[in-house]
Amino acid sequence: MRYVLRRAGFFLVTLWAAVTLNFFLPRMMPGNPAVAMMAKFHGRINGQALTALETLFGVNTKESLLAQYVGYLHDLVTGNWGISLTFFPTPVSEVIRTGIFWTLGLVGVTTILAFILGTWIGAISAWRRGRLIDSIAPPLLVITSAIPYFWVGMMFILIFGLKLQWFPWSGGTNIADTPAWNLSYIGDVLDHAVLPSVALLITTVGGWTLTMRNNMVTTLAEDYVRMARAKGLKSSRIMLDYAARNAILPNLTGFAMSLGFVVGGAILIEYVFNYPGVGYMLLQAVQNEDYPLMQALFLLITVAVLVAILLADIATAIFDPRTRSAR
Amino acid sequence: MKFYKAITRSPKATAGAIIMLAFVILAIAPGLFAHDSPTAEIYVRNLPASGQHPFGTTGLGQDVFAQAVYGTRDVLEIAIGAGLASTLIAALIGVAAAYLGGWVENILNLFTDVVLVIPLFPLLIVIAAYMHNSSTGVMIAVLTFTGWSYTARQLRSQALALKNRDFLAAAKVRGERALYIIIVEILPTMSSLLVAAFLTNGLYDVLFASSLQFIGLGDPNSTSWGTMLYWAENNEALQGGFYLQAIVPGAAIALLGAAFALLNYAFDEIGNPALRRVPVARRRARVFPEGRPPQTPPDERRELPVRRLRRA
Amino acid sequence: MLEVSGLTVEYATAKGPVRAVDDVSFSVDRGEFLAIVGESGCGKSTLLFAIARLLAPPARVAGGTVIFDGRDLVTMTDKQLANIRWQNLSVVMQSAMNALNPVKSIGAQFADALAAHGLRSRKAVRSRSEEVLGLVGIDKVHLKSYPHQLSGGMRQRAMIAMALLFTPDLVIMDEPTSALDVVAQRSLMTQIKELQSRLGFAIIFVTHDMSLVSHFSDRLMVMYAGQIAELGATRKIFDNPLHPYSRGLLEAFPGIRGPKVPLTGIPGSPPDLSIIPNGCRFLPRCPDKIEACETTLPVLAPAAGIQVRCLRVATKVSEP
């Protein structure tokens, strides 16, 4: 339990750090982007939004930095995230809500698939070391993981979308469709999800495979694996129960940590495929200098990663009995 | 040099080294290979591949091949610059944390972990957005600032393993100061790990920098590969059928990235000998026909090598 | 019951194959306690794993046979071996912390072994597990414990209990007491000996500590540089060690009683096995060498009721 508490503490500290970073960044940047942006929008948005922006960036206020900070935190917690400039006058919180499900669906499912697939291939590669699969899979995946996400996406669009016309390559669904829980809508969603999902899968699987393979190789040299052989256990049993189960433990935390990278890839994939998720939104916000939306999305993504890490820590506590009785 | 041996012994690493070497040559002397200036918008737009233009032209009338060649320098600058910088910072922080211990270690660890956990790419986007069209120098700074934490963690755990070795205790007893010990004693022992870290950082810096440029946060006037893709996207190259404008820079990025990754293979294996390739053992036991294995003839018996004492 | 002939084990290295076990032959009868003694690196652990067919690349058996209950283990396939493993031949390793799976409870690891040989009924598994734990004096509540929750001595005893799940004919032990303190070592040895007399299994016990096995073993085998240096009844060897290496080993231990004698070690260090000399391998460290030692490799030959690999002894014996 102490382990989980400690990890929860870390979660809070990092959360605080991200929130504070978010607060200070615009104030620290050269050329004071806040002022520049204010000048740009001055004539175009009404007083309420303007005031909100001013509060957000601390421009034209007589308040001390500390007071601004407290106000910022307060706004954050109460869901008052400002008004989006791209989708004016929709509040940021509502804008985010529309996009988040798309991202969770696409990125969430694909990442889990990549993790499972990669770990599986990694485990088998290590088990059958020196044989065919070990000579092919890891080097191949090393190469695929070095390819930039967006390029894979573009190539997919080129080959499977434009040339072969197998799958659509833009948007989450057909623009004409109205959302409904019927088969045709769902089918359409899946149809649009194939290319981005597979592109993301290909580029992320490599990392999992390699780490798992290396972990397994070290684990296979352990005495308890030799002992399992001595007991006459079946090969598959040894590989799963004795080797993989121990090898995967460091991976669990690594899984959560590299979610940060996956998020990066997701942003690019959504951009390339015009997929209406939060990543796409972030880029739109950047291009439109929609700072309120940008900040909120950044925080959201950070929190999501932090939560995932916390979950992974809990999972480690469940699967590794040693952490439970840690000092 | 053991690095040289490690690279030549592994076929993957050798391939990586050759590719890397090719790129370095391109970066040093681009003029030898490309006869056009990358920025000259003097040609007919959107030409396909031909003898005059091996990769065609862009939407602005520039020679794609020239851009790709000249772009190498830009990309390598960023990758090597940011890679070196983040590896250095990571080394200092990670090893200092491991070696100094105590509250210093706790604070450095916490700092490292927090920076590590904050998602890299969104942060990069946010910073780059605030900074508006960053130049190469800024790009390097930003990448370094966000990239050192992962490596710091790795190096820290390795340094922890070394911490209790005798040669460090000997240095301490000799009266050397902590900074000296860190730089002169610990870091050289971890050299293969440092190189591996540099290669990993290089890979990610190439990818991240290109990604940032692709979405328009780089310097749109630069000749980098990511910027090429940005313009290709702007030009709707794919829809228009001008495939090379998109394929070429992407392939270049992938190739350079692969070079980093392949080279890394060799250093991974140095650090963890268990990963080295072993021949699959033959199943059947051999029975010697005469009952005795052959002996070494007297004239081939080697002298026991005398090991030279390490310079104190 | 166990007959090892000409067993040779090689490691593939960058410099070529290195012979860790060179032409070793010996036998073990039912219920016998054979101790194998030698310095680190002499090949004793490799020998054990070779017999149990637990070697992993880059090590492999390069020659010889291991006849166990009439069948040659060296040429058997994994499938054929699976039957023999643990039922007739089990293994106890040096460090229980490393040899037990850290993420499975003790009971689960017992159940694993039982299930692998067809025993799956919950009740039967439980009763047998509790039975073996009782044999070594561990409370059955620990079936639910994880390895890191037990003390070092308990872990080691749990490993021994696991080895006895099927009351095998032969239990191979690789330095099972090395990780324990002296008192625990002694108590463990006594327990092992007692279990042996109760259940009747044979033991091959590898250790670097000769004094540890002096009271417990029936026969003693001294290994050096991958070969057998001396082999015979323990008492005989202790009373009159013939090989200079065995003598050196014995003289390195102080006796509790008797006059104070200056301790002598054996100068030098174990040889590099990748360079095989022509003559005796112990030559650089031997205080008793004769001229022939440099060029002739001595063979294992009988002398005074035991077997010794020493030219001086051999020539003395052949003298009238």
Report on this model:
- The complex is a heterotrimer of chains A (327), B (312) and C (320).
- Chain A is mainly alpha-helical and 327 residues long.
- Chain A has 15 helices and no strands.
- Chain A is globular, with a radius of gyration of 24 Å.
- The relative contact order of chain A is 0.14.
- With 312 residues, chain B is mainly α.
- In chain B, helix 1 (2-9) crosses helix 2, helix 3 (64-100) runs antiparallel to helix 4 and helix 10 (225-234) runs antiparallel to helix 12.
- Chain C has 11 helices and 12 strands.
- An 8-stranded mixed beta sheet of chain C has the order 6-7-8-3-9-10-12-11, sandwiched between helices. Chain C has a 4-stranded antiparallel beta sheet with strand order 2-1-4-5.
- In chain C, helix 5 (122-136) packs across helix 6 (152-163).
- The radius of gyration of chain C is 21 Å and the shape is globular.
- In chain C, 43% of the residues are buried.
- At the B-C interface, loops of B face strand 1, strand 2 and strand 4 of C.
* Cα end-to-end separation of chain A: 10 Å
The most extensive contact between chains is:
A-B, 58 and 53 residues
Helix content of chain A: over 70%
Count all strands of chain A and give the number. Answer: 0
Mean pLDDT of chain B, rounded to whole units?
74
The helix tally of chain B amounts to: 12
What is the terminal separation of chain B in angstroms?
Answer: 21 Å
Largest sheet of chain B: none
**What is the residue-averaged pLDDT of chain A?**
77
Radius of gyration of chain A: 24 Å
Proportion of residues in extended strands of chain A: under 5%
- Work out the strand percent of chain B: under 5%
Report the C-alpha radius of gyration of chain B, rounded: 25 Å
According to DSSP, the number of beta strands of chain B is 0
Overall SS class of chain B: mainly alpha
* Multimeric organization: heterotrimer
